[in-house]
Amino acid sequence: MRGSEDKYLMILGRASGKAMEAVKNGFTMPKPKDSLYVFLGFSYDDIPIDSKFNVLFQEKNLDVLFEGECIVRDVTQEFGKPLKQIPSGWRTIALLHFPDGIPKEILNLPEIDSWSLSKKSLRLTTLELYNKIKRKI
After folding, report:
1. Which residues of 52-85 are buried (b: 16+ CB within 10 A; e: fewer)?
2. What pLDDT score does 1 carry?
3. Torsion of Cα atoms, 3 then 125 then 45 then 61, to 10°
4. Which residue of 6, 9, 20, 47 is surrounded by the most CB atoms within 10 Å?
5. Environment class of 28 (CB within 10 Å of its CB; exposed 0-12, middle 13-18, buried 19+)
6. Are 111 and 86 in contact (CB under 8 A)?
7. Could you report the per-residue pLDDT of 75-124, keeping only the tens digit for each?
8. Do 47 and 125 touch, CB atoms closer than 8 A?
């Protein structure tokens, strides 16, 4: 497990139609309103389905872009197998649900076909962990 300064989900981009076609059998939940599929970087820990996050920020300057609820609703990986959690150390595609509306910053992320690093990637964490990250700087 990494230190608290690394405990965030790295959102690399929105999953493209091509990517979704390749992994569609890996998702078992219906897509709720105000949800989207995203590519996530390597996970810092096992993160169960229905885990909640509430701070979206930029890594460079730690600016908070969004404060509100985000729920991990479904997860798969490159082979399109359903997962019960985001496994520690894995890159995944996840269905994220934002009950109060998807933040524009996430909607503005590029649509990507795979886990390519993007200069526009964002970080998602809890308020408690975000405060620990800020204290480390």
Report:
1. ebbbbbeeeeeeeebeeebbbbbbbbeeeeebeb
2. 42
3. -50
4. 9
5. middle
6. no
7. 999 899 999 999 999 999 999 999 999 999 999 999 999 987 677 899 99
8. no
